[in-house]
Design a protein that fits this description.
alpha+beta; 9-stranded mixed β-sheet; 5-stranded mixed barrel; 6 helices
Length: 315
């Protein structure tokens, strides 16, 4: 009798412990959050931030630390989903009208190998700039932190994850139907005029999410500056031609292509090596390309993913 009682009590205890485990030891998904849980309400805009730090943004690889609570929001319109935009997000002003003065984007650097699961397209993001740095990298307005390159140069790079946990908040859930994901259409006659207008070739229109149309006049990779001409001159274009063969990469581990619009404007299409875009066959016909455009000495376009390449719709 005592033996039977002991077996019954042991079963009850085992069931009790199992029930306790099931109700209290669920995975703590909160630990997967890499961003802040709450930031104060926005008190500025991307446009105001660009104007406030104009000197740092328009200098030659210059930057400045923000020492006050400047909080803005934006929608993610480009991320690292293909690997072409490494450790980079592009945020666009919420409610902006394409081509209007308030239609502003800014680059945000985050030091993490994979960003897109956390910062999907259409995700609303709030950032407190206090303690972060704002300036430019290759004349593109950027938020991040300084770092030393392999050459010993101090540049504005991505912010560390510790900063993300305190300065960056996700607001709501991603929504890919948001109007902010509609690119500025530069495929029209008006768009061709916009591209050559010098009034648009400044930090206020860099970076932007835009669509262009064109074909590749040069199949050979091109250098970004005179120092790279010699390095590329002895390299031969491998066949079949792809966007970014390793044989042609420059000091930035990327390949430049000359994309020429029907109006004759040349846009540098820049693609990093070893990603979803770099091995795609280089189209010989006219196509539409959507991506992040920035202005240095000319317009430069970086595609977000293979889906940013579509056939010529005007045929």
């Amino acid at each position: 009798m005592n033996k039977l009682y002991s077996l019954l009590m042991g079963g009850v205890m085992a069931f009790s412990l199992t029930a306790c485990m099931d109700s209290h030891d669920e995975p703590d998904t909160g630990r997967l959050t890499i961003t802040a849980t709450h930031l104060a309400a926005p008190n500025t805009t991307i446009l105001d931030v660009k104007n406030k730090f104009k000197n740092a943004i328009t200098g030659n690889n210059t930057f400045e630390q923000v020492k006050e609570d400047l909080i803005f929001e934006g929608v993610v319109v480009a991320n690292d989903v293909s690997g072409n935009l490494y450790q980079t997000l592009i945020l666009r002003h919420i409610g902006s009208t394409a081509g209007a003065a308030d239609d502003q984007c800014i680059q945000v650097g985050i030091k993490h190998t994979i960003l897109y699961p956390y910062f999907a397209l259409g995700q609303r993001v709030r950032i407190n700039l206090r303690g972060l740095y704002i300036g430019n990298y290759s004349r593109t307005p950027k938020v991040g932190e300084p770092y030393y390159t392999s050459s010993g140069n101090l540049r504005l790079g991505p912010m560390l994850m510790e900063r993300v946990a305190h300065n960056v908040q996700l607001v709501g859930k991603p929504n890919t139907t948001l109007p902010e994901l509609t690119p500025l259409d530069l495929t029209t006659t008006q768009g061709a005029t916009w591209l050559v207008d010098k009034n648009h070739q400044n930090y206020l229109n860099s970076p932007i999410l835009a669509s262009v149309i064109g074909s590749f006049r040069e199949m050979q990779g091109t250098a970004r500056n005179k120092a790279e001409v010699g390095a590329l001159s002895g390299k031969k274009e491998p066949l079949p031609k792809i966007f970014a063969p390793e044989a042609l990469y420059d000091a930035g581990y990327a390949v430049n292509r000359n994309l020429v619009t029907p109006a004759g404007t040349t846009i540098t299409l820049r693609t990093s090596t070893q990603n979803d875009l770099s091995f795609l066959p280089l189209p010989a016909d006219v196509r539409h390309y959507t991506g992040v455009m920035s202005y240095y000495s000319g317009w430069q376009l970086q595609l977000r993913s293979p889906h940013d390449i579509i056939p010529n719709l005007s045929k």
